[in-house]
Amino acid sequence: MKHFKIKALVAALALCNLTAYAEDDAKETKKKDIEVSEKIVVYGEIGYRNRSDELAPTLEYSQEYFQRFEPLTAGDALKRVPSVTFLSDVLESDGARMRGLSPAYTKVLINGEEVPGAGADRSFFVDRIPAELIERVEIIRSSSANRSADAIAGTLNIVLRDGYSLDGGYLRVGGLRYDNGEFKESLAGVYGTELAGGRLLLGANLQGRYNPKQKTSQRYGDSPENNKNYRTEEFDNREDQSDTRDGDDTSLNASYEIIFNDDSQFNISAMWVDTERTEDERSFEYNDPTATNSDIVNGGNLETDNANVKYIDQTNYNINTAYEFPLLNGTSKFKFGFAKFEESVYEQEVELDTSELPMVFEEEQTKSAIDDKEWTLQWQHSQPWGENKEIQFGAFLQSKKRDSEIFESQNERALGLTRWDQYAATPLTLATFDSEYEAVTGGVSTLEEDRFDVFALVKHQDDLFAWELGARWESTDSKINDKTVAVTEDNNYDFILPSAHFRYNVTENGRISASVARSLRRPEFDFLTPALIEKELGDNDQLGNPELKPESAWGMDLGYEYRLGKSGVVGINLFYRKVNDLIEIANTEQQGSEGEGTFVLQPRNTGDGNVKGIELDLSTPLGAFNMPNTGVFLNYSWLDSEVTDFFGERKFNDQSDYVYNVGFIQDLPKLRAAFGATYRKQGDAYGRIVGEEVTTSYSADFEIFIEKRWEDITLRLVGSNLLDASKDETFNKFDTVDDQFSRRFDEYEIESEEAGPVYQIMLRYAF
Asked: For the TonB-dependent receptor-like beta-barrel domain, which residue ranges apply (predicted)?
């Protein structure tokens, strides 16, 4: 690994010398179409889905498609595109689930480059990216040879603004008001200008984040499938919880690009995002379904009083540079990038057990940290071949190191509270013990991973027919060091990943596209750690497996797209994925730490699965109906899958049955005003692991905006979550594998959380 890094560093220094030499020869900036700030701030027309020229099936949405609803994050923006679902809390959009699959199956890129995130499943939470930075979003449905193939569900490429996307600047000032009266600020500024023959862009963003929710849980000793009268006969307890997320996101971004007379060009870009967040929960458990806090002084109904607070600090930053130059009648490009993710979390939970007197006070503290950094070096060459063909080939190097640690302490002591009136007069507060922290088994580890990829493809394009054939070879060498068990293991593998894309222009406005490609999903970090974690899955133990290999999939997409007038487009797409070597929990047949009836379980590559669906999208003005200033938007996705686990057939975990969005924008040119609305709904999702089964349902989400424009100013009022969206979950919980087979419940739980409307007012000023 040391020699690998030295060679790559030499290559990076050589690249720096190339760019320095090239800048000496710069004389003037080649002209590109540059949008002025007034056009971005003061709209005169409605933005629709763009029609992409990429051969891989791609949907492209520019910022104009999203901005009138003033999304706060990239996640909020993605709620309006086809086939993207979320399994987040109400008012949040973090882990994007393309085609309803786990975020681990979706590759998230920023400006075409990979970025590390917090998820042990290698996912990246898209709510880390402020929507204000976005120029466009690309939904890439199928893999290509010139792009990393870690994208069984697809790829989301978030393209940020650069110097050629803005001339001048604008400011955004406003805030959000929540239903409990809390107000959060929203401030941003972006400026683009010419500098030294090139284009410079600078941006800054401060976004207050707040999410107040109320949760209620009803727990029973059995489920309705076993006991029709479970609501009365099997009642265990009820929990009422307030859950408030409060924080700030701060971001800075910059880019510089210069184009030289010989058609060579150089660019460098950087982004920094910092999140400080507090999650504050307070809950009460009652042994009566109708009890309230007013009953406490009389005693008897309150079982536990629990307070939980979590302090989260996350930082993402990356820097990328590229130099593109003519070579051998073609074009070569070198790219170098560095990205880092840091997270520190402190969590404290205190619980007062009031079920017996004297009452017992329990406290648990957890400190965790992640330091994930990776750098990449890429080279790609494109060479014309004949009149309508082009050859591309290149190489990709990546080195990644991820350090994770989790420490915890637990304390317990009896309080001198022997009467309920004493408790009522002394409410529970967070108190710190003098604690000694111990490493959690499997919680302190280092992953080092080196990748070397090469690819080649050939593509043909004319007015009628276009195609692309290619292949990518990916080789990965990993080393996993679990410091809690003092074990180091290697995990190495390589794959050949072919891809093919075809497009045929049936008419001037209609075209058919088809794609076939092989793609991957790499193993989760915590599954690779060679540690035995007791009672991780119900009462069963989990043993890591450093020999896990990636899941691989052969996929097919078949679509038809038709242009409606100058701006509109309608499309339909069918997709299918055959997934091999699924990573599922298997039984080692060894007895678990809890004795007879429990087992040691282990993630293994076992079995196959398939994913399929139909995706429909429409965005068009209604000029054909004599309504040229009205735009409508609609997308609907039917999602399905099949996999076999311990207990039989099911869908891929937590895949929604469907998701759809419908909306409109009405522009009023004479009044220099506009208004619009969107409505979104996603279907139920079911997930099953050893020890627990959960079904998740969401109510609908409804948003509106009203806009007034002046010469250089736009004022918008946006209302979101106007239907008081709720998230409802039912949990089936079991102690052992045998209990889950025979449906002997440890607990059946119904949980619901709800949040109220959010109103925001935003003023944008162009200069």
From this structure: 219-699
